[in-house]
Specification:
- The chain is an all-alpha fold.
- 78% of the residues lie in helices and 0% in strands.
- The chain is built from 5 helices and no strands.
- The chain is elongated.
Length: 148
């Protein structure tokens, strides 16, 4: 039970870090890389009321994915935190690439909000980098707090 609570907290922190990066990037570049509103508007079919459903879905998915990362990180028996950080970064690369491909091929073409339908290479790259941050935070925190 303690492990699940720890992974839940790690997932909330990692999802916050990823979303913060995406929000900052959205503000600086005016690109539509805001995952919370993109995910929420899949459900609400409009951008106006997508924030809260998107936030709930984004953090729920982030915590669930942290459990998956935790399963794989738990397979290792390393002494150094940086090893777990590197493994988290690697898993974030795989995860981010999968999200970018799915987003570009499936979601972009069928998203109910027009501003999220056009997925460029820069937008896909932003999602990969966001997931690299997500994985790095998970791996680092796992190595720091869950490895004895």
């Amino acid at each position: 039970m303690e492990l699940l609570i720890s992974l839940t907290v790690i997932g909330l922190v990692a999802t916050s870090a990823m979303n913060t990066f995406m929000w900052i990037l959205s503000g600086l570049t005016h690109a539509r890389v805001d995952m919370v509103n993109a995910v929420g508007s899949l459900y609400t079919h409009s951008i106006e009321n997508s924030f809260w459903p998107g936030l709930i879905m984004q953090f729920s998915a982030g915590v669930i994915m942290t459990y998956v990362y935790g399963i794989f990180l738990g397979l290792g028996n390393f002494d150094a935190t940086y090893t777990y950080a590197f493994l988290g970064l690697f898993m974030g690369l795989i995860h981010g690439t999968a999200v970018a491909v799915i987003m570009a091929k499936l979601l972009g073409e069928h998203h109910p909000v027009a501003s999220f339908q056009k997925v460029t290479g820069k937008i896909a790259l932003a999602h990969v980098v966001g997931h690299l941050i997500f994985g790095l935070v998970i791996g680092t925190m796992y190595g720091m707090y869950l490895v004895s």
